[in-house]
């Protein structure tokens, strides 16, 4: 008789999700998120981290912001204990670093008391990152060799503050305060009361390290009035000290070409990262609103049969990276040896598709200069006669019929392998839909006709001044057919081309 499988021992990873910029999340955090069974995340965590999670992971929002607590801290502690005790791999994502005013210590204590396994994964704290992105080094050889970090948001149950404002005011060097914008008037008054100079430079950095970053400068004497006059809100980090003046020459992040532009990316959740990353590198405030997701074709058996017979064709044509991925996923389910593909020659539309083919260590024999189906037909007529040649086209279910129709007219024997289909995205994991409803955007990007159609199917209210960007003429045609104007169209019909067109548009 077989022994029953031993139940896996649970573990809770108390992980720092960093200050907001996805690039500042550690590799260890990415690793544990990719293997997580349960994820509990906070308000200040970049929701795009959830894109790394397995599809079947249980995702729980436990965000806390002023006046709105989804779960009380005691409930979060109990939840972590419950899920870990059940043998789950739990990831507790906390903005910044879990042990720097993140209450990670309390959560670790709860797990330790329950005799459960846990791991602490430090994160990049906003106390250092937000000033850095505002061009403010918190230490500098010519200005200060000392740093004090304190919280402006203590336990509300306390009858007296445990902060020693006399000591903070008297301590030389830079002072960084987390979570105190709502109390900035009282805090600056306390510091001045204990001898801090009213002329001390102060900077508040809101949503630091993200495209939403805002920086407000003043002095200890007037920063509270400036906060009230401008309506400056949390979350923000406050920096006190002479190093604030260095921002005049070191402000690198807020001077990039797309800084302050709110741009929506509508690609699939798996693909959005490339476009989002390119736009963020230019300073844009990017939020993802995936309108489609990729699913297998309805008839997997038929697709598998065509893939199995690829060696009998003269040409294999790929029209997108998704088609390449789907084809080889099926191919390697059927075969163990790449040589089973035979002597078929390969054609690809666009550099991204060709690059994906090369990732499977195969060469591309034909790649048209333009990234549309019509260009493939022209390229074939220049390359060779296709009469009586057998051509297999791996593409999306909803693709245009230009390619098979025109190649058939030229005498080719064409089969279409439906490699995947695009369906409307129904989940708003990244919170993009909610943010678009609340804030709107400056620009929305479309990378295919299906992203246009599925975005419009959401029936979201469009801001009057919303501008649009299209990856190419086919997508633009669909946009116009649905009543959308096209403000930007890429001249090179791929993601780098779209990114360049958007930069040029705003540069102009």
Describe the 3D structure:
The chain has 508 residues and is of the alpha/beta class. It folds into 4 domains: 11-124, Tetrapyrrole methylase, N-terminal domain (Cobalt-precorrin-4 Transmethylase, domain 1, 3-Layer(aba) Sandwich); 128-250, Methyltransferase, Cobalt-precorrin-4 Transmethylase, Domain 2 (2-Layer Sandwich); 262-291 and 425-507, Rossmann fold (3-Layer(aba) Sandwich); 296-423, Rossmann fold (3-Layer(aba) Sandwich). 33% of the residues lie in helices and 21% in strands. It contains 18 helices and 22 strands. The strands form 5 sheets. Strands 3-2-6-1-7 form a 5-stranded parallel beta sheet, sandwiched between helices. Strands 8-9-12-10-11 form a 5-stranded mixed beta sheet, with helices on both faces.
**Count of the separate structural domains:** 4
Tell how many strands the DSSP assignment holds.
22
The CATH architecture classification of the largest domain is 3-Layer(aba) Sandwich
Distinct helical segment count: 18
CATH class of the largest domain reads Alpha Beta
Low-pLDDT ranges: none
Q: Span from first to last CA?
A: 75 Å
Mean pLDDT: 90
